[in-house]
Amino acid sequence: MTLSRSPSPVPGGGWSSPGLNSGRNSPSNMSGGPVTWESAKMRHHNPNTYPSFSTQNKGFFTRHMRRISSSLPRFNGAYVEKEKLKRQQPWFRRVPLAGRMRSIYGRMGRKLKLTLLLLLFLLLGTIIFYNTPLVYHWRRASFGGGGNKFVIILAANVGGGVMEWKGAREWAIERDSVRNKRKYVARWGYDLEVVDMGTKKKYAHEWRESWEKVDFIRATLRKYPQAEWIWWLDLNTFIMEPSFSLQDHIFNGLESHMYRDINEYNPHNFSHPFTEHYLDAEALSPVGDGKTNSVNMLLSQDCGGFNLGSFFVRRSPWIEQLLDVWWDPVTYEQRHMAWGHKEQDALEQLYSTQPWVRQHIGFLPQRMINSFPPGACNENADSNGNYPPDDTVHYNGNEHDFLVNMAGCEWGRDCWGEMYYYREFSYWLNRNPFELFKEEFLAVIWFKLTGQKVKL
Amino acid sequence: MHFAYPPRKGSNPPPFQPRSSKVPILRPSRLRTILLLVLTVIGCFWFLSGPKKETPYKEHAPSGNPPVVILTVVDPTKYSESYLKSITDNREEYAAKHGYETMTVKLFDYKTNGAPQSWARIIAVRHALSLYPDAKYIWLLDQNAYIMEYSLSLEEQLLDPTKLEGLMIKDQSIVPPDSIIKTFALLKGKNTAFILSQDETGLVTNSFFIKNGDWAKFFIETWLDPLYQSYNFQKAERHALEHIVQWHPTILSKLALVPQRTIASYARNKEDNSYRDGDFVALLVDCTPTGPDSCERQSEHYLQQLRYKSSAANRKS
C-alpha cells in the first residue's frame, strides 16, 4: 500500500486506514466499517483525551476505574509500623554502616588488626597475581618488565602442504607449537607473530625461497614499532621452561652469556679476526667494540655452523642493512648450487667476508636458546641404537635447557613423536606443587605400602 | 572478684629507669618501627629499580678533523713520476688552501685476488675510512684528474646540506636512459651519505664523496663483496656499484646524484658534460698511459690553465 501522507506518531492515532496505524498490534474498530474523514472528525468529542476513536467509553470500569480505586483504603505496612520497627532493630542496624565499621575497628585488638591486615594483603596479592591481568600488563609495560620490547615470530605452516601432504601429525605439531608459544607470550607479556611459511609463487619466482624470513622480520619490525628484539623460531621448537623470561634468561646478563669471538666454538673454521691491513681496529678486533649494545644479532651454532632455527635480531640500522643485502641475485647466481641451506649459508658467506656484519653478531651457547634432541647433529648411533648426547649440543632436562629445536626431524626422524615427547616432558618438569605432592609423595607412599603404582 | 579497696602500693616508689639510649628517637620500642620503615623503603627501591638498562648504541661521530680527505690512488707502474707529481701537487695545493688532507696510495698496495686491479681503488676508500675516523668526508678522485678551481671550498659548493639539496637530481634513473630504479624524490640533503654523478652511460666512479660512519663501512664492504669481485662485471666495480644501488634500497636511500660538472667534468670537447672554464674538476677520461693520447700530453693543457689561474690570483692579491 502506498502512503500519500506520513502516519501520525501517536499509536493508533491519525487516519483510520487499517494499514497506517502501525503502532498497534491489531487494528481496532474494524467493525465500524469504512471510516471516512467526516466520521472520524465527529468522534473527536474531547480534544484533550487520546485522539483515538478506539479506547473511549468501552465500559463502566474503564470509565470509573480511577475514581473507584482512589477511594479505596490503603495498607502501607512499612509506613505505619516505622516507629515500632526502629525500636526493635538490633543496635548495628540502627547505626549507619561507616559508624558500625568504626566501632568494630575500635574494639579490635592490635594483634587481630595485624592478622587481618596480613590476611587482607594475602588475599589481595592472590587476586592480583592469579585473577587479574595486572601482572601481565606490568610485565609488558616498558616501566615494568619491558615485555613489549620482545616479539616472537613463529614460522608456521612450513611448505603449506604444497609439496607434501599435510596430515594429522603435521597439524598436531603446529597446534602444539603455536600453543606453547602463545602461552609463553601470554605469561611474559611479549608479542607473538605467527607467520605463514607456505610455499609461495612469489618467492619461487624470484628464487628467494627460505629468504621469506627477511620479509617477515621486516614486516614484524614495522608492525610492532615498540619492539626492540625479535626472536625467530622455527615450527619444530618447544619452549621447555616457560617460567624463564627472556630478560632473565638472556638479556639481563648478555655480557656473560654471549661470546663474540667465534674461535670459542668454530665448527666452520672461519678465520677470525680479519687480518686485512686496510681495516680499522674495531673490524680487526675479535670482539668488535666489546660492548653488548653493539650486538644486533644473537644466534647459536650447532655442529654444522650457524643455526637459524632460533635467533634474535635487534631493531637497528644495521639489521635493515643486513636484511637488505642478505639476498642478492649476483651472489645467489654464483652460489645457489653450493648453498644447501640457502639463507643460512648466505649469512655465513656475509659473516666470513664482511667485517661490518661480523662486528655486530654475537653468539649464544647453543643449549641456551637452541638445544637439539639427541637425534640431531649426531651421525653415529651406538650399538644399542642410542645416540650419545653431546654436552654442547643436546638437550639436558636435568639442567633445565630453555628450548628444544627438533632441527632436521623431517629428514628421517619422527617430528610428531619428538614434539609429543618434549611437550609431555616439559609438563612433567614444570608440575605445580599439588601435582608434585600427589606424584612425588602420595603415590610414592602408596607404592611403598601396597607395591602398586598409581596415577593420581 | 572485687575488693573494697585497691591493692596497697608500696610507700617507696621505684626510681625512674635510666634511658637506655641518649637519643630519644632510638628507644628500643621505636627501633623496631624504624627498622621496618627502612626495610620498606629499601624494598620499594628494589622493586621500582629494574635491571640496569644498557645505553643505546651510538656510532662514532666524526669530529671533522680534517673535514675532507682527498684520496688518490696512483699507478706508478704505468705513469711517469713527473706526471704523478703534478697530480699529487694539485691535490696538496688545494687541500692546504682549505684545511683538508690528502691521501695518496699506490694501486698495487691492495690485493684483489684475481679480480681487476681497479677494485683496489675501492679498497683504498675503506682504508681511508679506517685511517681517518674523524674525517667527515672521503673524496675519491681519480688519478687522471685535476682540481681546477682552488678558490672553491667543497663545503660551499657541494657538502653543505642545503647546497647539496639544491644540487641533487631527484627521481632520476640510476642507469640512463631508462632504468626503472630512480633516485628517491623525497630524500633530504642531510640524510645523504654518498655523493656522485652520472654520465650518459651510468654512474661515475671517478669522483665521489662518502660520509664517514657505520653506513660508509657497510656500503664499501658490501661493494667489495668477493662475490661481486669475482662475477666478471663488464666494468668491474662500476657495474657492481650500479647493481647494488639498484638492488638494495638501504644504499639507494643515501645516494645523491649531482650534476656531473659539479664534481666530474670530462676533459673532452664534445658533450654537455665536457669541461668548461670555471668547472671545478677536469677528469681526463679518454687518456691512455702512453701513445698520442697519453695522459701526460693531455694534462699539459690543464696544467697551463692552472698556472695561468694561480698567477692571476697572485697578481690580484
Automatic annotation (TrEMBL), chain A:
<feature type="transmembrane region" description="Helical">
    <location>
        <begin position="112"/>
        <end position="130"/>
    </location>
</feature>
<dbReference type="InterPro" id="IPR008630">
    <property type="entry name" value="Glyco_trans_34"/>
</dbReference>
<protein>
    <submittedName>
        <fullName>Uncharacterized protein</fullName>
    </submittedName>
</protein>
<keyword id="KW-0808">Transferase</keyword>
<dbReference type="GO" id="GO:0016757">
    <property type="term" value="F:glycosyltransferase activity"/>
</dbReference>
<comment type="similarity">
    <text>Belongs to the glycosyltransferase 34 family.</text>
</comment>
<feature type="region of interest" description="Disordered">
    <location>
        <begin position="1"/>
        <end position="41"/>
    </location>
</feature>
<dbReference type="GO" id="GO:0006487">
    <property type="term" value="P:protein N-linked glycosylation"/>
</dbReference>
<dbReference type="GO" id="GO:0000139">
    <property type="term" value="C:Golgi membrane"/>
</dbReference>
<keyword id="KW-0328">Glycosyltransferase</keyword>
<dbReference type="InterPro" id="IPR029044">
    <property type="entry name" value="Nucleotide-diphossugar_trans"/>
</dbReference>
<dbReference type="Pfam" id="PF05637">
    <property type="entry name" value="Glyco_transf_34"/>
</dbReference>
<keyword id="KW-0812">Transmembrane</keyword>
<keyword id="KW-0472">Membrane</keyword>
<feature type="compositionally biased region" description="Polar residues">
    <location>
        <begin position="20"/>
        <end position="31"/>
    </location>
</feature>
<keyword id="KW-1133">Transmembrane helix</keyword>
From TrEMBL, chain B:
<keyword id="KW-0328">Glycosyltransferase</keyword>
<dbReference type="Pfam" id="PF05637">
    <property type="entry name" value="Glyco_transf_34"/>
</dbReference>
<dbReference type="InterPro" id="IPR008630">
    <property type="entry name" value="Glyco_trans_34"/>
</dbReference>
<protein>
    <submittedName>
        <fullName>Uncharacterized protein</fullName>
    </submittedName>
</protein>
<dbReference type="GO" id="GO:0006487">
    <property type="term" value="P:protein N-linked glycosylation"/>
</dbReference>
<dbReference type="InterPro" id="IPR029044">
    <property type="entry name" value="Nucleotide-diphossugar_trans"/>
</dbReference>
<keyword id="KW-0808">Transferase</keyword>
<dbReference type="GO" id="GO:0000136">
    <property type="term" value="C:mannan polymerase complex"/>
</dbReference>
<feature type="region of interest" description="Disordered">
    <location>
        <begin position="1"/>
        <end position="22"/>
    </location>
</feature>
<feature type="transmembrane region" description="Helical">
    <location>
        <begin position="31"/>
        <end position="48"/>
    </location>
</feature>
<comment type="similarity">
    <text>Belongs to the glycosyltransferase 34 family.</text>
</comment>
<keyword id="KW-0472">Membrane</keyword>
<dbReference type="GO" id="GO:0000009">
    <property type="term" value="F:alpha-1,6-mannosyltransferase activity"/>
</dbReference>
<keyword id="KW-0812">Transmembrane</keyword>
<keyword id="KW-1133">Transmembrane helix</keyword>
